[in-house]
Description:
The chain is mostly helical. It is built from 23 helices and two strands. Helix 2 (34-40) packs across helix 8 (162-213), helix 8 (162-213) packs across helix 18 and helix 8 (162-213) crosses helix 19 (450-471).
Amino acid sequence: MGIIDIIVFVGFVAAVLFVGLYKSKGEKTHSDHGAADYFLAGRGLTWWLIGFSLIAANISAEQFVGMSGQGAGLYGLSVSSWEWIAAITLVVVAFVLLPYFLRSGITTIPEFLEMRYNHWARLFMTLSMMLILIGVSLIGVIYAGALTLKELMVSYDVNLSLAGCCWALGAMAAIYVAVGGLKACAWADLLQGSALIVGGGVITYFAFNALAGANVSELVASTGAAAVVDQGAGVMEKFSALNDSAMHMGSNPTMPWPILILGIWIPNFYYWGLNQYITQRILGSASLAEGQKGLVLAGFLKLIIPFVIVIPGIIAFNLFSKDMEKNAGNALAVYEQAVANPASVQVFKLDSKWENSNPVKAAEVMAYNSAVIARVGNGIEEVSLNSYKYDSALGLLITKLIPRNKGILGFVIAALLGAIVSSLAAVLNAASTLLTMDVYQRYINRKASQFRLVTMGRVFIGVFVVIGCVVAPMLVNNKSVFEFIQKFQGFVSTGILAVFIYGLLNRTSAPWAGVIGLVANPIIYGILTTVYPEMHFLYSMAYSLLIVLAIMTAYGLVWKQERVVFAHNTTMDLTSSKGALVAGLVVCALTVALYVIFW
């Protein structure tokens, strides 16, 4: 990078740290409300802080890199379902779940389970969420972020160690979270969330600009075939001709429509409505109306995300498919070894895009497969030949298209760093809150002062950072961190969602229903993923949800108690926002319209 890029990069990082620490300097950790001030920003967050903070906490390296890579790969635009379904989910959370949570005055989501069931349900949910936050989310975010920065810097002849990147990211997030709590996170997220959207827009602009000026003979369609478009065509005409198949939401077998009907809603409702590191932002709302407006703003921003992350990834394949093939290394090495060994009984599954661009070699591989099957019969496990490194899409866009020494490159890399640090800070803040309020205060030191609680929260942040930075580099041999995170969360998220759905709809079942649901889910989900390993994990989550709800319903028919009435424990203004409701309905309508347009 040039000196101007370095100045912009360092200046942005310094600004984020300064704003976060400055805005939180008035936190009164010794006051009667010290813990609420620290963990929930004094319940004073406004709607625009909430909206941008939700996006910044959500989007990190695994989304930025993974979604652009999946756009370049076999998913195309269909990966946008994770974003567009989230938009509707956020609106539902704003007007269905948020009023319950704010009225009850809770600090953590598991605290609500104690009100409905018993303290054992609260403890089990807390420990389960801690396992996910520290053992999966924290380590995954640190690793994915460090790996992204390391690989990006290699492109500029700067060789950083993976462990060093892990410690740098961890330290940066821990500084302002430990000192300023949620308020520091929210103000830092305002800058980082805005930079994320703008940075994605900058990448999109340069991607389309490069496509407009590219030689048609060097372009490759999303199918992997050579471009069929006139040289003099406009940029949108080129884009449409090259990517017709990739721009259809319903054409991808990796995201079949039944998943959109049921499966994908489960992780979405858990993540946006019940996951502490997301919901902590809305629990810190200044009022119900502010929280609802913030959630609707986040929903609108989720509709934009695919246009600045996924579509640039699609264009990256058009422009740089040869580079992606080179980055994948010699993917055919395993095949060539099998050919050289007459005793081999392997058959190979080809990437459909690579097959279209290399028809002669693909025919050779398919003929080899047929010969092996004819010799030993069917039932042979296929070995996938990953001929393109799709996850290199974002790095290729940045290193090949963003001009150097004009400040733009420094800003884009700072935006990517900000996305990583915001998500990391959110996880640290949530995990610290859970361990402090749901375990330390509830079971270890019930009489702890407000200052003591804040101090313990800061200590826990330090411990979590050390754990994450030590363990994260050990994931270096894991093929897909994003997939690992998504699949593993099913052991926890489905059960938590089932328990909340049942607890809100049925107020008369005995209190052990919550524990039963939380314990039953990992057993059921584990059985399904073990017995049916080829089944999409979202189907496994859907079946788990239905089975857990059935078990809880059967229990509730036999063991009953008096109807639970949720307490009113807040002086907050709980007037619902009519304007936010109208805007929320508009967001839902826009989501449906996007599916109709791109189906």
